[in-house]
Amino acid sequence: MIGECKKQIIGKMVRLKREEKGFTQLETAQNTELSRSYISDIENGRYMPSVDTLTRIATFLRIDLNFLVQNDGNTSNVLKEGEQMSKLKRLRLIKNLSQTELSDLSGVKQNFISEIESGIKNGSIKTLNSLAKALEVQISDLVENHQN
């Protein structure tokens, strides 16, 4: 189960960054010497890519490999503050929800969700509980772990 979750998260992070950079799966495949179908399989969580494969993808997308590792469920603090994706955003993306959809499900205002995800504000226990219920996770899954 944990391995399945990591594959899903890494896949979503690859897709998120590829789309942010404006590349197609085919362009990514050609520039990483991987097949388009393998890129699709990674993005859809069907395969756990090797470190070599992740390095090729990260190099092409010009992102720190640690971004993919940090966001695969590990709690290491490898990235600089501000580069880390919040646990809330990561869980929201895994559930394929927009901020507006999460707002509708949780009753928390969309702009406040955005501020929590950006690290501008912290949610109260009541707010985090509402978000956790909407995401079908434990409240502890939303709390950032800053231990080394």
Summarize the structure.
The chain contains 9 helices and no strands. It has 148 residues and is mainly alpha-helical.
Describe the structure.
The chain is mainly α and 148 residues long. It folds into 2 domains: 2-70, 434 Repressor (Amino-terminal Domain); 87-141, lambda repressor-like DNA-binding domains (434 Repressor (Amino-terminal Domain)). It has 9 helices and no strands. Helix 2 crosses helix 3 (36-43), helix 7 packs across helix 8 and helix 7 (99-106) packs across helix 9 (125-135). It starts with a helix and ends in a 13-residue tail after the last helix.
Give the H and E element order. Answer: HHHHHHHHH
How many structural units, i.e. domains? 2
At the third CATH level, what is the topology name of the largest domain? 434 Repressor (Amino-terminal Domain)
Q: Using the CA coordinates, give the radius of gyration.
A: 16 Å
CATH architecture of the largest domain: Orthogonal Bundle
Sheet bearing the most strands, described? none
Q: Give the overall pLDDT as a whole number.
A: 79
CATH superfamily of the largest domain: lambda repressor-like DNA-binding domains
Structural class: mainly alpha
* Total helical elements: 9
Query: Briefly, what CATH class of the largest domain?
Result: Mainly Alpha
